[in-house]
Specification:
Structural class: alpha/beta
Largest sheet: 6 strands, mixed
Length: 242
């Protein structure tokens, strides 16, 4: 029942620090693997402080698009991917993937603060505690990942994403590997916790996109291109029964 309590008591989200939100701009992006052209002159604007979903068939290049934005794919022109004000977005991005990618020998708290440790930055333990309350795992801070359910592990991954405090969050099908009921609860939780950030999510699920997305793009073709943006009406997360 923790999700219902979280959603009713939205004041607990106030402890999450937000940097000013920014948009992303993709300008004439091209990417190929030998003779396989994935993108050719792909352009798009990702609106700041909104949740944007990318739909499309398997293998079309959705995850590759996220990797390109994150700077994990080598492209010829570094100016192809910028923030809306023309700067490099690489250090402004955090990533949440389909797999939770938790290190099994680290506790929940240690996994959440892993980025700080790797960068040799100070760790705000009070912030970790606040995040654990937000995701309903404040009683599991010292637990190892192997003792958690799939949904709990993804909540830890969400808390780790929030711990980074970045204004842009890239999400590669983060809810697809869990059961339908847990997925629905995590969608609502993530939607509330990530308000105010620029979120770009890849998904195969049209209903998920309609529930979470302020803006929806469909990626199709080879080379892949983005269709006109779709703006579903109403506030997010939308009620899937209506």
């Amino acid at each position: 029942m923790y999700e219902k309590n979280l959603i009713k008591n939205k004041s607990i989200y106030s402890n999450i620090p937000l940097r000013p939100s920014i948009g992303l701009k993709i300008t004439n992006a091209s990417l190929a693997y030998k003779n396989n052209i994935v993108f050719k002159n792909l352009s798009a604007d990702i609106v700041g402080a909104k949740w944007t979903c990318i739909l499309g068939p398997s293998g079309v290049g959705k995850s590759t698009l996220l990797r390109m934005i994150a700077g994990l794919e080598e492209i010829k022109n570094s100016k192809t991917i910028t923030t809306s004000d023309g700067s490099n977005p690489t250090n402004l991005i955090s990533w949440m993937s389909q797999q939770d990618l938790l290190l099994p020998w680290l506790s929940v708290s240690e996994n959440i603060s892993l980025g700080n440790k790797l960068r040799k930055e100070p760790i705000d333990f009070s912030h970790i505690k606040s995040l654990l309350v937000d995701v309903g795992l404040d009683q599991r801070s010292e637990s190892l990942p192997g003792t958690l359910s799939g949904g709990q592990r993804q909540r830890v991954a969400l808390a780790r994403t929030l711990m980074e405090g970045r204004p842009v969050v890239l999400m590669d099908e983060p809810f697809s590997a869990i059961d339908a009921i847990t997925r629905s609860r995590l969608q609502e939780l993530a939607s509330n916790l990530l308000k105010g950030r620029t979120v770009l999510q890849v998904t195969h699920d049209p209903l998920e996109a309609l529930r979470l997305g302020h803006n929806i793009h469909i990626l199709t073709g080879r080379p892949a291109h983005l269709g006109k943006v779709i703006h579903p009406p109403g506030d997010t997360p939308r009620d899937p029964t209506k």
